[in-house]
Structure formats: C-alpha cells, structure tokens
## 1
Amino acid sequence: MKTVKTIRTVEKVISICSWLILMFFLTGTVLAQEPDQKDDFAVYGIRQVRITHSCDPAVPSPQSQAAANAIPCATTQIFPPGSTTSVWSQDISWFNPVTKKFYLADRNNFGIDILDVTNDTVLGVATGFLGNQPGTNTSGPNGVLVTNNPHQIWGADGNSSVRVYRLNATGDTATFLTSVPTGGVKRADELAYDPDDQLILVANDDNSELFVTFISVSANKNNIQVVGKISFLGPNPANCPMGGCATDGIEQPVYDHGTGLFYLAVPQTTGHPNGEIAVIDPKTKKVVNVFGLTDVNNNPIPCLPHGLTLGPRQQLLLGCSADVDDVNFPNGRALVSIVISAIDGRLVFLTNKVGGSDEVWFNPGDNTYYLAASSWQLDKNGMGFICPSANPPANCPTTAAPVLGIIDAGSDADGPEFIQNIKTAAGAHSVAAIFYPSEKSGKRPGDRDFINKVYVPLRVTPGVETGGFGVVGRIP
C-alpha cells in the first residue's frame, strides 16, 4: 500500500565563505586557521540549526514552524492493537546520494518507505515485511541499505530473513526479488555492504542467537545466497571469536574500503564488558581483530556501543548506548560518545556531551557526524548519566532528554569537536544525513552549491505526537 506524506524542505543557503570551507573539507585540505577560529565558525553556524516536524510542539530555540501541509504518518497497522492512534514503529534509515532517495524501515506500513529528498515527499513503500510483533523480537523491517550495482534495497525482517528488492534507475520503484533465510528464529537486524567483495553482512541480535551472516550480492536472485556465518553466542568461549562471547546483543556493522574489513559494534562481551569493535575479514569470513574501548591511560571506556559509522581519516564514530548493567556498573555510568581509529582502535576523541545513541551517520557534505541519541538523559547536574536499575543513586536522571547529537569530524590540524544537541522526541533513534549538489549556479563557472540536511523520523505517541519527520539543516 502506498502512503503519501509531505514534510517541509529545509534548504541550506551557502555563503561564499562556507562554500570555500566545504570545498576544503571535501578535498582533504587542512584549513589554515587557528583551532579556536575554526571552532568559532562551526559553533556560529550550527547554532542556527532549526528542526521542523509535524508532531512535537516543544522544538528547540530558535523556534521554528511546522509545515502547514505536513500530514501525520499514515499507518496500516495499529499498535498497540485496539488503540485509536498508533505508535509509529520505525527503525534504521538510509540515504542513497546517487538517486537522491531516502529509505526508512516502517513497520506500521509493513515495509520500507521511499522518499524523494529533493522535495521531501514519500513516494511509496516496498512492502511484504512482518510489521509490528510486540514483545517477540520478531518485528520487521529492521536494518536497511541500498546497493547501486546491482541497484537493490536490502531489508532485514523479523523472521531471521533478509528481503531483497530490485530498484529502478531512479530508485523510487521497488520490485520484490527474493528472501534469504539466515538460519535463526528471531529478527535479522542491521546490515553493512562490501562492494569490493559483493557481500552483505547482517546481524541477528537476539541474545538467544547472536550471529552474523554473509550473503552474496547479485542481480540474479539464484546467486543471492548465504556464504558464511560467525557465532558470538556463549556460554562456551571456545565457540566464540576473539574478544569473547557477546552478552548484550550485536549491533551496527560498517565496511571500510580503505582497510577492506567489516567492523561490528558489540555492546558487551565476556572479554570486554564495556563493549568492543569486532574486526571481520570478508575474505576469510572470520574475526581477525578486536578493539577494546580504552582511554589514553588504557582504562576501559563504558561505551556499550550500538551505532557505528565510518568518517574521514580512517576513523570510526561509536554511538555509545544507554544499556543498563547492574553487574559491571553497579553505580551507574556516564553517557559518552567516542571516535576511534579503524587502523588500530586507538582513541581519537571522547565527549560526555552526548550519548545514549542508536543509529549514527557521517555526512561528507558538511564533514559532520550525526547521532540519534534517543536515550540521552541528564542527572540533576545536567550531565549525561544512566542509573543502575537497583538502588539508584541520588543523582539519577528524572526525565529523558532525547536529542540529535552533532559532532564536527575535524581535520588533520584538529580532530573532532562536539557542536550541539538538537531536541528530538521519544523513540527518535534513526538518522540519515542528506548531501547532494543543488541545481543552482555557483559563484564561478563549474561551481555548484550543495544541499545538506538531516532526516530524523519521529514516532507517533498517542495524545502527544501525531508523527512525522524531523528535518535538520544548518543555516549560515
């Protein structure tokens, strides 16, 4: 079933100065300024970020108006059953810069929404997924990605399968191709694509399963097959890869063309209860290294990572979660986000100004990381903190404070820098940044402006929100 939803466009008007800085970022040239000058510029620009959506009236300052023609998210599945207003159950999102289309796992519509980012309009849905299956960890779709050669959507479903759809040239029409079982019972979750070896890596995250599956990519459905598997399921360490058995799910993977390796966020293992990044060779289909998450003094960083994205200079941003673990963190723990080296796991950057993230995204268009920190929460001192479930201390958070975190990825001259948090809404755990050249002429022949904005799906909450997409953009 097709749905029609319209959201307000937030366009970036780029000045000559910001255009030059963007070009420096894209060409890898080091900015010839003092670090504090660069920081001042970034803060100045990002402070004018506005968020526009059709559901949450408590938008951050400066106040912005919801689009007059914004339509609440249409639903074909009511959740919870019997309610008059449905909670919008959505998961991972994806942007394809080649076709300028955005894709979102939308369980209420049993499929993957397809949006045109040039006019912020939903075009249709790639249907056939299980939808909401409350309390069973068998809902779908979950993870989503798009390949360009062949041109396909891949979506992980709730019955431990991955559904593949053929896309037309413009990426707005999807035709079902095949479904590939991964061998489990619970949901298949997040995905990564290796175009060098034409492989998809998909994670089954339920604690009763805990494995990743390699699936071959092909335009011929008969050649789309499971070609390997790695188990992270305990309790016998001999059956688990280096680093130990996973004890709290397995999360977002990413592929790095520079190293030719997959990287997988593992929130906790028997060897690293604070979390680790498993390094996987797609050729041998084995874990070949593990990055324990430690600071410069080799002390464990309590990250418990869920989100993972590849940024510039072979660096990985980790979206550290707000998972509760009374055994290893009996006094609770600070919420943080970190950047590490994809080469050796060395810590590059740590901030305690945003955390509790799920999906994270790097946008090369503005050299910026975006973190869907839907579980960010503050203690009485205004610091990010997660309490233990038993005997919580006095400084525990009283209310959640979900945000979109924004971190400048930096340059060779100076590294990443936290910029700002933008208020979102409960359940806003999905994010994708949009980057494409506009049709406007530049200041010189051959120059073109670029559109940079961010989509944050905001779920429906009965009596509070009617649903919609948050659109974030930087206004110079």
## 2
Amino acid sequence: MSTSFARLRRARAVLAAGGVIAYPTEAVYGLGCNPDDAEAVRRLLALKRRDVRKGLILIAAQWAALRPYVVPLDAARMATIAATWPGPYTWLLPAHPRTPRWLTGEHETLAVRVTAHPVAAALCDAWGGALVSTSANQAGRPPARTALQVRRRLAAPPDLLLPGACGGAARPTVIRDGRTGRAVRL
C-alpha cells in the first residue's frame, strides 16, 4: 500500500498552499491539513460541517512531530502511550499553551496519534510534521471508507484525494485520556 513519490510531492504542495486533502487511515478516510494554518483548518471544518469547539486530532509518523503541540506526561504514562504507537490509538494529552484553539476547541487537551497506516505515515513524512486528521464525512454522518465515498459524503471535494485502502480497523481509532487511560471513544 504505497503512495508514489509524485503524489506525495503533490500532497506536500497542496498542504503548503493551505489545501485540504483526503487520505486513507487505519479505519476510515481522513481529511487533513496543516495544523498551523488557521484558514486551512477553517476550510476543513466547513467541508465537514464540524463545530470548531469540538477540537481535532493530529497524526504524525513520529512522536517528535506531535511534541510541539502537547505537554508530555510523566515517564510512566508516556511509556504506556508509546507502547501503543505506531498504531490505531489516539491519546488526549495536555495541550501546549501555544497550541491554537482551532485545534483544541473548548478542551485543555489535544488528541494525538502516531499512525501505523503506510499512506498516512508517508504523507506525514512527506509533509515533514503533524497533520490534522478527522474523518472524511459531514459531522454526524457515516465516515468514508473509500475514495468514492469521500466524494459523495462531503459538502465539496477536498483539494486532493490520495487513493489507497483503509486499514483493517472496523471502527475509528480508540481515544483514551493519557492522564488516566480512561476510554473516551471506543
């Protein structure tokens, strides 16, 4: 399940220009953009018809790319979290004070994941950092699991769609509170 160098180079250019892209993840197609670009995040939220107050997830190919957005927990908690990555586990960690509200919404935490999906990880590597990652569907509707469903389930098409198969997960990734381990979404 590889994505060509040319497609990844194109995706990087689209992201750098403030674009929104769709790509396969562990369970569903995701919508992503540069997390530091407020206008790109606004466009992504409009495509999804999602309220900014809900907050978003960031994915990366390595923990180091997520580190600027969060405050790590104690070594024992971080070891527990690190043992699940890369993989289909999203963790809520305290947001760094400089993390924009367009990412955290009304929360003091930020949802982060080191992805194991080869296309999503390659995309993050090509971008050179973390990406916003939210399901490619309008809020409250079933998530897209194919490129065709992405085209049908959004208010408008993303700027770029990276083709590929989603991973084998039957449901979107588990979200746990990093401070307690408590499941927030199963």
## 3
Amino acid sequence: MDIAICGNGRLGGAIATAAERRGDSVRLLGRPATGRHRLEAFAGSAVVIDASRADAVAANLGAAAQAGVRRFVVATTGWEADRSQVQAAVERAGAAAIVAPNLSLGAAAFMRLVSSAAAAFGALPGFDPFLWEWHRRGKADRPSGTARELARRIAAANPAATDLEIAVIRAGESPGTHVVGFDAAGETIELRLTGRDRSAYAAGALAAADWLMAEPRPAGLHPFDHVVDAFLTPRPPAVRSAA
C-alpha cells in the first residue's frame, strides 16, 4: 500500500515505522513552508494519514483530495472547529475518512467498557462518575480528545451526570493516561487506560487504512468504531474441503 503521512512528528514517525515494517511504501511529509502541501506530494497515494496539527487538517485533506486521494485517516486531535469544512471537502470528493479522538484499538474497546460501566453505575444509588487524564507537557489540547469522548459517552449512558468535570495534567513525557471512576461512600471503582508509547496509535491508524482499502466505503466521515466492529464481528469457520 502506498501511504502518505502528513506530519513528521512523534505520531507520524511511529506510523511510518509501523507501515514500513509491514512492507508498505511510505511518504512522510513535514509541515510545508507555505502552509499547504503541493498536489504532487500525494500523487499515487492509496491512503493519506493525517498526524499533523489541528490547524492543518482541513488544508491537508483538501490538497490530497484535489490530488485524487479518496481514502483518509485522521489521527490528529483538536480540529473539531473545522469539522464541517473537512466533512464537506471529503463528501464533495466522494472520499471516505476514518476520524477518531484516539485510534488505538485498545482505547476503542476501553471506551465501550466505560459506556457499559457508566450505565451500570448510573442505575445504582450513590455513585458519582469522575474522569482525569495525564499527557506530556507539550500536548496542546486540554482536555484531550480521548477525554472529551469519554465524557460524552458517560453523559450518554447516564444523563444524570450533568456536572462531570475533567481533571487535566500536563507534565513530563507521558504519552497518555485516562482514568474513569465511580465513587460512592463505601467504595471506588476505577477503569484505567495507560499508553506506554505511540505504537498502539500507529497500529490503529494502519488498521483504519486497511478497512478503507478492503472495499468501497460510502463518502463521508466514519467513526473508528466501524474498524473495531470488523475485528469483533464473529467470522464464519473455514470450510474444509473433503479429501
């Protein structure tokens, strides 16, 4: 697969390394001086993965779509203000994009556990949900996209959780820790997601690229849950031919 990656930082580098290890052809693109990539940078790419900056996502996808790319994975966070612009550009091009605040397959399963837990503890008397996250000092968005999505899922599963606060820590080099808990007078239950490095995000980004390549997908923005569903859907057992 020919993959162009927008963003040559830590995440972009991790995705490039994982892609090269499995035999993909990779173009790792840094931030252009003009603020917009030349169309030639994307020529022939089967998939473009954006791992750049929030303010560059719309321009990157717009240029790639102009160059003829029809499959995108957005691994960048904090670009929600441009979502309508990005969605319009993707749909106008007849392209499909996977977007998610966190492209880790483990994090996606964690979010489903949080939804179930929030519903269960929301039905019990006396339990208050809480949420905190810790990332490296240099991470720009506060709270993280993952934390905002966890808060959304808690509220969706338990409409009574209207005053949920997100505690944010920015210190050191932590690639990401998220803790969701439920506290009552006599006990506390916690669910914890700890990222050790960016390999999990890289694996998820490539799984999203594979999902886009597997068959034609409807134009528009698709949640990462669709990729996760492909792993969780039971597959029929292989039929052995008679000897």
## 4
Amino acid sequence: MEFGISTQSRGLYTTRGTYMTVAQAAERAGFSFLSVNDHIIVPGKLDSPYPYTQGGAWSASEHGHCFDQLAAIAFLSGCTTRLKLLTSVMVVPHRPVIQTAKMLATIDVLSSGRLILGVGAGWMVEEFRLLGAPFDERGVATDEYLEAFRELWTADRPSYKGRHVNFEDVIFAPKPLQPGGPPIWVGGESQAALRRTVRLGNGWYPGNNNQKMLMDTPARLKVGIAKLHAIAEKEGRDPASIDLGLIVQGPFEWTAQPTQDKSARRMFTGTTDDMRADLEALEEVGIRHIALRLGGETVTESLERIGRFGEEVIGAGR
C-alpha cells in the first residue's frame, strides 16, 4: 500500500516555506506521493454545487486562493528526491492541450519520472466559462485531450483529429521520461468516469465523499470497484490491469468519527489500530494507493501528524 499527502493550495499551503517543509517531511516519514489540487480562477458568484459535500458548499469559494497546480508540482519536484507528485485532479479541458502536454512532459523529465497524472472532467461551470473551456462537452474534450497526450508523448510525428483537438505532423520533444508518459489515474465516480478509466486510464482514483455515490466504507467502495470491473469486462479489458487508489476527503482525526449516515466509523479516524484495520480492509478490496488530508491548524501540528502517521501506520505495515 502506498500512502500520500493530499494538499489544497490554500490555508496552510500558501507559502513557499510551508509547501517545501511539508513535502520534505512527508518524504522522510515514508509517504509515497503528494498531491496538489487544481483550480485556476474562482468566480465571485458561484452557483455550481460541489459534489463532495452535503449541501454542495465549496470551502474555497470565499477567498479563491489557488496556486497553479502544474507550477506548484514543478516546484515541489525540485524540493524532493523520491516523492511522487500527483495532480489531484487536473481538470483536463481547462488548459490548451498541446501546452499542457508539454508542461506535463517537462515536469516528468525534470522530476526524474515522478509525475502521476490524476485527471477529471470538472464540475464548476462558472470556471469553465471564465477560461473559455467547453463545459457542456467537457467529457468529450477530456477524452480527446487524454488521447492527444498519449499521441504527443509516444508518436514520432504526432497527429490527432477530433472535435476539440486537431494537429498533425508535429515534432514533440522531449518525451516524458516514463515510457508512454505519466500514469493516468482517472478521478470521478460516474459511469462516464468509469468508462474513461477503462478506455484511457492506468488506474481509477475516486473520492470517498461523492454525494451521489458514497464510498466512505470499504464495503461501499467494493460496490464501486465491482461496477468498474463489470465495465472493463464488457470492454474487453482485464480488470486486474486497472490500478486502484482512493482519496479520503473527510478530515483526518485521531478520535473516531461517524460516516455521514452514522452507520459506521469514518475511515482513518480513531486509534492507530482502527487505522491499521482500515488499511487491511482497503487492501482486501484491491486499493493500492490512499491519499489523506492529514490537516493541522499550524505547520507544527501538520508536521506532527505526518510524523505520527508515518511511524504508527505506515511504519507498522512494512
């Protein structure tokens, strides 16, 4: 099992020193990856409901602080030597396709092949409109972008023709260091996201708190994985070839907290033994990567949580 630190570029993560300190502490504590979220611009008036909270409220809507995701990951790659860097998730249609492919390839080369591309189609219609991106066809655009990325990263003379992406006979270099490009983890829990995973992804990377498809216990997550595997079998892909991850979006606590429906203990809350039990249960359903928001009101508290989790949970599983 690989554990990662999930960061959001607001709150604590708004300065060079904090981001660097947390990334280096995660590396020392035995975490395998660190993720950065993705928003470029926040509208002054937001009506789109956030899919991962009850009631649809989004915590960043008031202040709008957000570093550029790819610039932040490029910075973090220079602060670390072993830690993998995950886009969690990159809203694929937000940026120009060729430029994005170039930025990702550059990060992969300069990080010595440590980039993981977590991707999603997006949810905030207002942000799409501000960026001039196609919200109504975001699913089609996302699929075309991912196909175009692979073409640019692998072909000698890349060419692609689609509704949203068109280019031919170009020279694209350097290629990513990882053969075929960075692994693609598809975020989202919808049927469209599951199909995208099967057709275009190396792995599935759902969140546990989607209000339309809660996966906040191992048993509920197992149901989602079964749906993914059924689609894979229908599409002729071996389900075992699909890597499985999870982002645990609820706040991390060292005291037990209930799930939204009060039916069970929320994963990765409670005692160290509780968290080890969560780890074992998730491994049993096939999860190989877990991203956690360990939180902390101060840098000191954040570092304490990282160190304790590394020692008591990650270290105990080695």
